[in-house]
Design goal:
This protein is an alpha/beta fold. The protein has helices at 52-55, 59-74, 82-92, 97-115, 119-122, 143-157, 171-185, 201-211, 228-237, 251-260, 270-273, 276-288, 302-314, 361-367; strands at residues 3-20, 25-38, 43-49, 130-132, 135-137, 161-165, 190-194, 219-220, 242-244, 265-268, 293-295, 346-348, 370-374. Helix 3 packs antiparallel against helix 4 and helix 7 packs parallel to helix 8.
């Protein structure tokens, strides 16, 4: 079996809610979809998207790198050699993780379909029959909107864990939002906070000590990704577990965090680190260091969410209510015929081959604003 053609689709999907965090604001997802076709008629699909504020890759950057460099490199190759292909992409393109990730997702989908096995079986099998999921609460113009969104997700989807986005220039807004959300949701609901690198050390230690009074589950990425020293110091001054997200883009980042004892939990996002292949390596490093993992991803349709879910279901050292399905209730339309669903706060995966989704190709062709074919 060899790869004979790769198709790249660019689609902008309006969001039902504005994603507003310390990095940037988004009212639509600028998605990049990839279909890899083989000479035996088996295809695999992947999804990623642009986010300049988070990863320095926009939709156009990803599309250009795929069209001009990465996709041509895969033509004529055996898709089963996924380790070799990932290593070659990493060697030639040490950055551009989102572009590498979408190819990695499509390759895993393709291999699973060829073998008649779900992707989680390619990763060692499923650890869980179902997984609890949480929901992010993005910045709003008022805390009443935050509360309204949280109550809606609690009632309609059974969500019992919420991540409040913090990191405002005025941290008193963050403290007020936390206080009001806790009051509205009650003590039995889990609340965690995520600054998305929004604070410096002095502001972080001051405001996070006050936030601990509201029984928060964890604190995610309070300071810039490169400021490992501040993470180390914060761990000494706070009682709540610290989780890193933006500080880990590859295995070397993970080793640096471990060496400095700078975090209690790793948030592993397959699109951020370059795909499932690299995410598994990082989760194994974390397991060896006895560090629990938290599985998430970017806002995506069911195509991307399926890739994150298959990774999550295979990780033995997961902790808390993961966020690999956050896009499912935020997008204005999906691109599959059998969407992943959140029921009573859980996501389940079946045993269909590959990523287990039936892509709606008519919808993709209808919604695409541009398309490239690499042969």
């Amino acid at each position: 079996m060899i790869i004979k053609e790769i198709q790249v689709f660019l689609i902008d999907i309006p969001l039902l809610i504005k994603r507003s965090i310390s990095h940037s604001e988004k009212v639509a997802l600028d998605e990049v979809l990839v279909r890899i076709d083989t000479d035996e008629g088996i295809s695999g699909w992947g999804e990623t998207g642009g986010d300049l504020g988070f990863c320095s890759e926009g939709q156009g950057d990803i599309a250009f790198v795929l069209h001009k460099y990465m996709a041509p490199d895969l033509i004529g190759k055996d898709p089963f050699n996924i380790t070799e292909l990932n290593c070659q992409l990493e060697s030639k393109f040490p950055e551009h993780n989102h572009a590498k990730a979408v190819l990695d997702f499509a390759l895993h989908d393709l291999i699973g379909k060829a073998l008649g096995q779900p992707v989680y079986n390619l990763l060692g099998g499923r650890m869980y029959q179902r997984l609890k999921v949480g929901w992010p609460l993005y910045w709003r113009s008022s805390f009443s909107e935050l509360i309204e969104n949280a109550l809606k997700m609690k009632e309609e989807k059974g969500i019992k864990a919420f991540k409040l986005k913090i990191g405002h220039d005025d941290s008193s807004i963050d403290l007020r939002n936390l206080r009001e959300v806790r009051k509205a949701l009650g003590d039995d609901i889990i609340i965690r906070v995520d600054a998305n690198e929004g604070y410096n050390y002095a502001e972080a230690v001051k405001i996070l000590r006050k936030m601990e009074e509201f029984n928060i589950q964890l604190i995610e990425q309070p300071v810039p990704r490169w400021d490992i020293n501040s993470l180390v110091q914060l761990k000494q001054h706070l009682n709540t577990p610290l989780m890193v997200d933006e500080s880990i883009f590859n295995c070397m980042d993970a080793l640096e965090i471990i060496k400095n004892k700078a975090a209690d939990i790793f948030n592993i996002k397959p699109p951020r680190v370059g795909g499932i292949y690299e995410a598994v390596k990082i989760s194994n490093i974390a397991a060896a260091a006895n560090i629990p993992c938290f599985a998430s991803g970017r806002l995506s349709t069911s195509i991307g969410s399926a890739a994150y879910a298959h990774f999550a279901f295979s990780v033995p050292n997961l902790i808390y209510e993961n966020e690999f399905a956050s896009g499912l209730c935020a997008i204005s339309y999906d691109l599959v015929e059998n969407p992943i669903v959140i029921t009573n706060g859980f996501v389940e995966l079946g045993n269909l081959p590959g990523l287990g989704i039936r892509v709606d190709e008519k919808m993709i062709n209808k919604k695409s604003k541009d398309k490239f074919i690499i042969k």
